[in-house]
Design brief:
This protein is mostly helical and about 190 residues long. It has seven helices and four strands; from the N terminus they run ββαβαβααααα.
């Protein structure tokens, strides 16, 4: 099973977790994750969501902006070209049938500008990503490395308890990088 964990920054509190089969690539489950965030009303207009390289696909940038009206900061891979993404980002056709076409166009331009500016210096978000990785290491130290269960329901229960423990640890104030690393090594 593959665990997708959504954390709020800077509090690092878990907002949601999803389980997926291991053989599904992250880029292909992007839409499913976004739908679940929308269903749970976690997504807000103009939110910036940070994803790791596993979710990298040009279409995921488009889906995030056009369908969900967010800024999907997906860490790019080595073959990423900002010019290509800029060329692909165009108004969705639904804008032209909207009652507030000017407002929708203004929102899209703002989202596009924000995304392109964030992608130009995405390296500055590595420190945030590093802290998030420490939270994942902490989760693995709670027992997620040895996840040997026979049914999906038992896996779900075990993961739910681990995510709850992460939430409790973070709520108690253990949010700094060094503290999280020490806890994960215990």
């Amino acid at each position: 099973m593959k665990l997708t964990l959504v954390l709020e920054y800077p509090s690092m509190k878990p907002l949601m977790f999803l389980l997926h089969p291991t053989n599904k690539h992250e880029a292909k489950i992007f839409h499913q994750i976004m739908e679940e965030l929308r269903r749970r009303r976690v997504l807000r207009l103009r939110d910036v969501l940070i994803f790791d390289r596993g979710f990298y696909a040009y279409r995921n940038y488009l889906v995030g902006m056009n369908e969900y009206k967010i800024v999907p900061l997906i860490f790019p891979r080595s073959n990423f070209r900002l010019e290509r993404l800029d060329g692909l980002l165009s108004y969705p056709l639904s804008i032209f049938s909207s009652k507030n076409m000017k407002k929708e166009m203004k929102l899209f331009k703002a989202l596009k500008a924000k995304l392109l500016s964030l992608l130009e210096n995405w390296q500055s978000f590595r420190s945030i990503r590093s802290v998030i990785e420490d939270v994942f290491k902490l989760a693995k130290s709670f027992g997620l490395r040895k996840l040997h269960r026979y049914t999906r329901r038992s896996v779900y229960k075990f993961v739910a308890v681990n995510v709850l423990l992460i939430g409790v640890v973070v709520a108690l104030g253990f949010r700094e990088k060094k503290v999280l690393q020490r806890l994960a090594e215990m």
